[in-house]
UniProtKB/TrEMBL annotation:
Organism name: Polyrhizophydium stewartii
InterPro entries per record: aa-tRNA-synth_I_CS, aa-tRNA-synth_Ia, Leu-tRNA-ligase, Rossmann-like_a/b/a_fold, tRNAsynth_Ia_anticodon-bd
PANTHER family cross-referenced by the UniProt entry: LEUCINE--TRNA LIGASE, MITOCHONDRIAL, LEUCYL-TRNA SYNTHETASE
Annotated signal sequence range: none
EC class (word): ligase
Entry's Gene Ontology molecular function annotations: leucine-tRNA ligase activity
Protein name: leucine--tRNA ligase
Keywords per UniProt: Aminoacyl-tRNA synthetase, ATP-binding, Ligase, Nucleotide-binding, Protein biosynthesis
Pfam families xrefs: tRNA-synt_1
Family in the record: Belongs to the class-I aminoacyl-tRNA synthetase family.
Positions of the Aminoacyl-tRNA synthetase class Ia domain: 3-185, 361-515, 553-589
Length: 758
């Protein structure tokens, strides 16, 4: 996964790049054609805020960061295909992101509508549900998130919900990632009913109709427990009176601040608010079901859902006083008797319900009210409505200056004025930009043809898809990875690529996070910079002398616990650092950073260097002994041959299943075996050569140097081919056999004849 150019790499970046680089080098040395591209997820809110704080244009800030991080990646020794480098903020790239938007528009998968959104008042932008913490705060700024109703752009990802679920089984992905996507999509089977709804105080009023979904798993065993639960965006709420709508809106603002059940209980809040509407029961015309806006559905689909479990679990009858009074008034009638319990079989038999499916997944809200992003290629005309910008006018760009700030009102500026592409009348450009997940949803395709000026990618690129191995953090399981799958499926359906099942990533390696020690002030909880903490003994806050709160957390700039790789490289060496990152923990597991432990890898590399020095000191190839030394014997020669074959087999197998710690352990074991073998023997030289070739993907710098010394001339990486089984078995004729020579053997055979026969 390409990095965000925050300004500098930390060890989390170094780990993921080391993982991808060792795989790329292994497959290249094995004779395969490998694309190992690199790019930059360059748009986004953090870069815009950082640029504003420094009085810079975000373009300059981002390009400066990319230049610095490019230098750091080079120092890591990663063999990236730099000729494929791309940046999402480059007009040559986002011109095709806008083209993607227009393709989706033409396919009917783009919609602009009013929606209740999470608004961050500090950053001045809309947040995805995933960016809001359980206590109702913005994940990045920490501000109290507000609910606002704004006109927003959506991609209809829900049209692909069943395909996104059904195709997961075919992917070689970790089960945990698949399960997260299944839970997020939340596909359920059940029945759908069409119910008549009217105000409870106006039973004779013309009823509205609402479709309600009842999952198969729903049950209702308690009297009076059933209601119609709806989300805050359900169309039925438009029929509420002004006073009732105001009451619902007030409750929503409160609910937004306490989004968890525990928080609701602590605040004494009702888990839902009655709309004053009731629905007629499908089989009993005298029975009524209250329609309730539920807190549980603030981040759920807006479809009406007959869900007794949520209503009962939240004690809705006792929590909303108005609804409780209505239920008490109607409890004596048949209106809330056993007949209103869930009975899908009876509803299906009675012809009032049909089999249906529903899901938690909502359409993808892609609007962002910031300038540093891909401009949405739409023009608003009073006569024609929203009009797509013609393809020959792409890319649509913004003027990104040092004064660009979210506090401005770009929609009112002269810069938004333009002519309508359809009628040539006065119009204005859309000023929202796209969610950065749109930029990263298709870069895997652009990598294959990054300089194409006439298409997103040439059709011939399909032969190189899907991506064989995709490496990144598990935290992207339900956003980036889901959105990329959706876009890939759309591009396949739209004929842009030929991609089986529309899946972009055949195999996923979800690497664990690198954790670092973080310090917090005991009074404020604020994260402290290392310079603010005295660690000479028990960690204490320098300013107050109080004991600091110590924790081990994901490396992050905001937590001041990131480790800059450059000083580590300078102190321990790039190769030793890479080996530490690959050996310390399985790639799927978290890695707690401990720089003191790198010394183990330094000792290993020193042992390899000593082996090469010994072989080189033993003389040129013409002086190397052609038979095992007397002290080694035939058995010793066979033992070394077996160690070589085992190492080659174990490392090769480990590379195919991401078992990097096992691979490094096998190489260390082989180095120990070689350390006890005479350096002047021919097999020693071959074994050391084998070790260097196996080690090369892990430690490319030192192995190139040592392989050159062993060969007596500089070598290239291409010359260090991955050893075949035959390479590791050049003493295959020497075998260890258990032989029993029996006394009853005829004497005339003779001892020499017996061994010759065997």
């Amino acid at each position: 996964m390409f990095p965000y150019p925050s300004g500098s790499l930390h060890m989390g970046h170094a780990r993921v790049c080391s993982l991808s680089d060792v795989l790329a080098r292994f497959h290249r040395r094995s004779g395969r054609k490998v694309e190992h591209p690199i790019g930059w997820d360059a748009f986004g809110l953090p870069a815009e805020n950082a640029a504003i704080e420094r009085g810079l244009a975000p373009t300059a800030w981002t390009q400066s960061n990319i230049a610095h991080m490019r230098t750091q990646l080079a120092a890591l020794g990663a063999a990236f295909d730099w000729h494929r480098e791309l940046s999402t903020s480059d007009p040559a790239y986002f011109r095709w992101t806008q083209h993607l938007f227009l393709r989706l528009w033409r396919a009917g998968l783009v919609e602009r509508r009013e929606a209740l959104v999470n608004w961050d008042p500090v950053d001045g932008t809309v947040l995805a549900n995933e960016q809001v913490s359980p206590d109702g705060r913005a994940e990045r700024s920490g501000a109290r998130v507000e609910l606002r109703r704004l006109a927003q752009w959506f991609f209809k990802i829900t049209h692909y919900a069943e395909d996104l679920v059904g195709d997961l089984d075919a992917l070689d992905w970790p089960d945990s990632v698949k399960q997260q996507q299944l839970n997020w999509i939340g596909l359920q089977h059940g029945v759908a009913l069409d119910l008549a709804v009217a105000p409870h105080c106006e039973p004779a009023a013309a009823p509205a109709r609402v479709e309600v979904f009842v999952p198969d798993a729903a049950t209702s065993t308690e009297r009076h427990g059933l209601c119609i639960a709806v989300g805050p965006e359900h169309p039925i709420l438009a029929s509420l009176s002004a006073s009732r709508a105001a009451r619902v809106a007030e409750w929503l603002q409160q609910a937004m601040r306490t989004t968890s059940h525990a928080a609701h209980d602590a605040a004494g809040m009702p888990p839902g608010v009655w709309t004053g509407l009731v629905a007629r029961h499908p089989l009993d015309s005298s029975a009524r079901l209250p329609v309730v806006v539920m807190a549980d559905m603030l981040r759920e689909p807006s479809d009406g859902t007959m869900d007794a479990a949520k209503a009962l679990a939240r004690g809705i009858a006792g929590a909303d006083s108005e609804l409780a009074a209505w239920i008490a008034e109607n409890a004596g009638s048949d209106g809330l008797a056993a007949s209103v319990r869930i009975n899908t079989d009876a509803w299906l038999d009675g012809g009032v319900a049909r089999r249906a499916s529903s899901h938690r997944l909502r359409d993808w809200l892609v609007s962002r009210q910031r300038s540093w992003g891909t401009p949405i290629p739409i023009v608003h005309c009073d006569s024609c409505g929203p009009v797509p910008v013609p393809e020959d006018q792409l890319p649509v760009t913004h003027t990104w200056t040092a004064s660009s700030t979210h506090k401005a009102a770009p929609g009112d500026s002269d810069a938004a004025a333009c002519a309508c592409p359809k009628c040539n009348g006065a119009a204005r450009r859309e000023t929202d930009t796209m969610d950065t997940f749109v930029d990263s949803s298709w870069y895997w395709l652009r990598y294959l043809d990054p300089h194409n000026t006439s298409a997103m990618a040439s059709p011939s690129c399909s032969a190189q898809l899907p991506t064989d191995v995709y490496i990144g953090g598990i935290e992207h399981a339900i956003m980036h990875l889901l959105y990329a799958r959706f876009i890939a499926k759309f591009l396949a359906a739209d004929g842009v690529v030929a991609l089986e099942r529309g899946e972009p990533f055949a195999r996923l390696l979800a690497q664990g996070m690198v954790l670092g020690t973080a310090y917090r002030c005991p009074d404020t909880g604020k994260y402290l910079a290392p310079t603010d903490v005295d660690t000479s003994g028990e960690p204490r806050v320098v300013a107050t002398g109080k004991r600091a709160i110590v924790s081990v957390e994901k490396m992050s700039k905001s937590k001041h616990n990131g480790v800059d790789p450059m000083p580590v490289f300078e102190r321990h060496g790039v190769d030793a650092t890479r080996l530490y990152l690959l050996y310390r923990a399985a790639p799927q597991d978290e890695l707690v950073w401990d720089s003191a432990a790198i010394v183990g890898m330094e000792r290993f590399l020193a042992r390899v260097r000593t082996l090469v020095d010994g072989v080189c000191a033993a003389g040129s190839g013409s002086r190397i002994a052609s038979s095992p030394p007397a002290e080694s014997g035939t058995a010793g020669s066979a033992t070394l041959a077996k160690a070589m074959a085992d190492a080659r087999e174990q490392v090769t197998a480990a590379m195919t299943r991401f078992g990097f710690p096992v691979a490094v352990a096998s190489l260390i074991k082989l180095s120990h075996a070689l350390a006890e073998w005479p350096p002047h023997h021919a097999q020693t030289r071959r074994a050391v050569d084998l070790l260097l070739r196996l080690l090369h993907p892990f430690a490319p710098v030192v192995t190139l140097e040592l392989a050159g010394r062993l060969a007596g001339a500089p070598v290239t990486a291409e010359q260090l081919a991955w050893p075949s089984a035959a390479d590791a078995a050049f003493e295959a004729a020497v075998q260890i056999c258990v032989v029993q020579v029996r006394d009853a053997l005829p004497v005339e055979y003779g001892r020499e004849a017996c061994f010759a026969f065997l």
